[in-house]
Amino acid sequence: MNTHQHSWALPGEHLEPVLILEDWLGPVTALLRCPVCDTHALIYLVAWQSPELKHRIFAVRVVPDEVTKTYLRNIRSDYCDLTRKQREFDALITAAEPASLLISVRGNQIEATAPAKTNPTLQSWHEIETEDYAHWKKLFPD
Fold it and tell me: What is the pLDDT of residues 40-65, one digit of tens each?
């Protein structure tokens, strides 16, 4: 029986993104790698607490290894097509598994985890209301 837990599922661990895809006063969307098993996951912001926006809740979606390799190779190569970056990101999201976990993060440290009972919508950080934080925070153990 495999009892391995990925680093992003362990309270007390720090987020160490392989690639930050979007940032606003800290990661909004990022690609993580488990240092033990090399599995990758995409995290994206679902809620944050004002006024500092340091308390954040992310959805975690595991990304298949071949998809991650292709994405990283393609995004790091030169290209002239200005729409390619978004198309590569869309392909990454489409290939990622449904959200399996929510993580509560303060600064860069994981404080708590909770199973994702739904697949939270990926939306722009501009559209995330700080009032939604209380709703998401209720899903975590005290």
Answer: 999 999 999 988 888 999 999 999 99
Q: What dihedral do alpha carbons 68, 65, 39, 102 form, nearest 10°?
A: 60
136/99 Cα distance (integer angstroms): 14
Q: How far apart are CA 65 and CA 81, in angstroms?
A: 25
Q: Which of 132, 71, 127, 126 is nearest to 102 (CA)?
A: 132
- Say whether pTM exceeds 0.70: yes
Give me the helices (H) in 2-118, please: 65-76, 84-95
Question: Which of 129, 2, 5, 3 has its CA nearest to residue 57?
Answer: 129
Write the pLDDT tens digit of every residue in 108-140.
Answer: 999 999 999 888 999 999 999 888 899 999 999
Tokens of 1: 């029986």
Helical segments of the chain, H only:
65-76, 84-95, 133-137
Name the 3-class secondary structure at 22.
strand
40 found inside a domain: yes
Structural domain containing residue 53: 7-137
Q: How many domains is the chain partitioned into structurally?
A: 1
56 membership: H or E segment, kind and range: strand 55-63
